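Because discrete structure vocabularies remain unfamiliar, we first show an illustrative case, written as a sequence plus integers encoding its fold.
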Amino acid sequence: MRGAMPRLLACLSLFFFLVPVTYVRGPVPPVNESQYIALEPIALDAENPAETRVGRLAFLGGWKITSDNGEFGGISSMVALTDNRFLMLSDNGSLVGFTLDETENRAIRPFIAPLPDGPAKPNEHAKQNWDAESFLHDPDTDQFWVGYEHQHSIWRYGSSLSRKESANFPAAMQNWPENGGAEAMLRLPDGHFLVFSESAEYSKGGYQALIFSADASDPTSKAVAFGYKPPAGYKLTDAALLDDRSALMLHRRFTPLDGVSAILSIAQVKDFEPGKVATSVPIATLKPPLKVDNMEALAITKNGDGTIVWIASDNNFSALQESLLFKFRLLKGNDTHRKPDAKPQNKKAEASPGFSTFESD
């Protein structure tokens, strides 16, 4: 009986992911522009709060995030800044920001505001015109990059996301499925950008991804294709660099029988090679009875010599789902109480390649 309720809710929420919905306009409710964001602490396993290990992740804290603001929800990507400051991007083009006070479980200096510019035409506010799915930040320049699906494009914004600096609608992305666009994005130390489609199939296996010769928001940047193959049955939702040789990859899955689950895995940057198909090694699986939802956003911070992994969920603006934020410590391969989901990566992995050849695959 322990897993019956999560499976029931999963079956109901699956409707919102798989069935096209026609919205019938009714009375327009009053606009709520509240800037208040509430944080409610949650356990990884409500029935067994002492459970704090899953694969190579040690649970450090979790919060359910709510707000009365009508634009809050749909968290698809996030950036973790210094001092526990978070910027979360919604798939309706809204930006959610706050500083996490872990002692008091509260959001300090919260705000909810639209992005200053995007691929939508003036007065077009439909979700598909502002569906932001991936998010990067350069702390040295304070510039931000946003990947949009539906309107398949990569945009760069200036300091504090105050204005648009450049935008690119790469030809290689225009045939991607409307709802399968720039789901994840990486910026490598050598300046190359990697952009991953969620569901555009790659001819050699897996799903399409692109290596850009330079800034992906620059229309002059050349792109070549490669493939990324997620764990069986899962789709990629976000990615974040661990170092110059490896990246964390976040995936999700929904099935009527098993409900919702997520897999975190590690990929080697050297495997992201033009014309090839890259894979990754799972290190942790989140599934019931553990607390889990539509896990879409991933960020990494450093704590001394350790790595902190932040994962957030997209509630799809549905009352059946929740906006969650989890904090984990990434464990070394031999530093787990449970057997990891897979063997750890080879510590002697090679450094990232130069990607000097940019020819169409």
Remarks:
- The first helix runs from residue 4 to 18.
- Residues 4-19+37-119+127-330 form a domain with the Neuraminidase fold (CATH 2.120.10).
- The first strand starts at residue 38 and ends at 41.
